[in-house]
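User: I'm new to structure prediction. If I give you an amino acid sequence, what do you actually give back? Let's try with this one:
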Amino acid sequence: MDESQFPEMNKTLLTTAYLAPIQYYTWLYHSKKAIIERYDHYTKQTYRNRCIIAGANGSLSLSIPIIKPEKLKASSSEIEISDHGNWQHQHWNAIGAAYNSSPYFEYYIDDFAPFYFKKYKFLFDFNEELRALICDLLEIEPNVSYSTEYSKDISSPDIFDLRDSIHPKIHFAEYDSFFKIKRYYQVFEQKHGFIPNLSIIDLLFNMGPEARLILKDSHENQRG
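Assistant: Good question. You get back a string of structure tokens that encode the predicted 3D arrangement of the chain. For your 224 residues, that looks like this:
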């Protein structure tokens, strides 16, 4: 990415994401406008249906099972959630085990409970309701809209396309020279070392109200 371009860019294009990584929320915080893609072709093994948290044994990936779409190239907004493996119960227990000793776990955990006991049909709706909650807890108010059609290649100079860059198999430094994560306290840091760019809940449960400051300081183009 050409760092000289960012000040002129007004919009950031993102995919939907489940408990997205800190990088994702850093861009929500710093972008003048964020567009969340509804009509991209759903891709497996992305943050669309998975997050990464830190547990006693290190990084742990949590994935939401989906119902295989009937058509070959289904859009993200059409993907339905499967009940396979009682995933809500499994994720709820995993989050509790990972963060019950974190400083702000008791303060925030009840806000997340409905997402693991209420049934949701569509992954996109689940992710977006969860994102809205997290933004509220972080006390950030990103200017978010949704795509009206799918564009494979974005040629507009004022749009920063991060749909393929924020990915669990891509190290954030490889394609995102703006994101410079600020180190913060993690429960298991003495055991595993600092693990960067975990799910936003790692930052929230460990830092509480200071999480917003970490987002502010984790971008080269800082704003107030």
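You can read the tokens as a compact description of the fold. Here is one thing that stands out. The beta strands are 11-14, 33-36, 50-55, 58-63, 144-146, 159-161.
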